[in-house]
Amino acid sequence: MAGRFAPRTTRAALPHQAAADRAAAPGAEAPRTREWTPPAPLDLRLVLGPLRRGPADPTFRMVGDGTFWRATRTPVGPGTLRIARHGDRIAAAAWGPGADWLLEGLPALLGAEDDPEAFVPRHRLLALTRHRRPGLRLLRTGLVLESLIPSILEQKVTTDEAYRAWRHLVRRFGTPAPGPTADLGLHVMPDPRGWAMIPSWEWHKANVDAKRSSTILRAVRVARRLEEAATMPLPEAQTRLQLIPGIGPWTSAETLQRSNGAADAVTVGDLHLPGIVGHALADNRDADDEEMLSLLTPYEGQRHRATRLILLSGRIPARRAPRMQPGNVANL
After folding, report:
1. How do residues 74-95 score in pLDDT, each as one tens digit?
2. Which residues fall within 8 angstroms of residue 124, CB to CB, at 6 or more apart?
3. Domain annotation for the chain: domains and CATH numbers
């Protein structure tokens, strides 16, 4: 086994966090710990970045020393995961009922199941970007709902508006994250019943329109069936998610990129991505979804990785379309 569990707290594994652990409330549980050595270069910021929903995401933090904190709801309960690099090792600590589940899934979360060598660059831009970003891996959380709900909130609105809604709902109806997280303000999102019990006026306060809130309510009613998609091949997983009215190709791709580490889950229906891909690969900033998919044909099976590399390349056209204005639910 590439990693190992430590049945007791291992302070040496995370020396710079010892003070934070001691600051936890008296009698607080000691963290479970694990160390893991990645088999290849690994950039934690690139790998974990897709989990962050805005700079004040209540479920995710990166602190100044390069440590990452993640609060989530696992199949066995809430859990908090802290990840830091120590030389060539990754040191992790976890709290809460979901601690062991999170530590068991640490390698997959950090891209151990990803296969970057399956990507063969056909464009010089992508070859150079891959060379410059050797630590890029596609994460896999194994959790569908935690990525599906914020993706639904991001439908047809600005990212800032969606991030505000996510913050409001998680802080209002979630629970404080286990472990020494009080100073970070971390929260675990509600369970399916918690989402279902949110009153209509609270969706209104979060500026979430009826279409998006109804889609979330339909999803949480079949949460167990949706979570099964985390272990399905991409086509079957997409079909499972898109059985829910209100969940289409854009939302399913954004979800499965994170929950399944789906290297081919290319995002269609995005306002900007076709023009970005068209500009990078064919000098056509006016490309639509059809042309984007045509340009990505050489990367079949790896189209999501190709778009990640394009976005990391810096070859992004200036936006010419007016910025979408935040809506007001009261005016709908």
Report:
1. 999 999 999 999 999 999 999 9
2. none
3. 145-246 (1.10.340.30), 273-313 (no CATH)
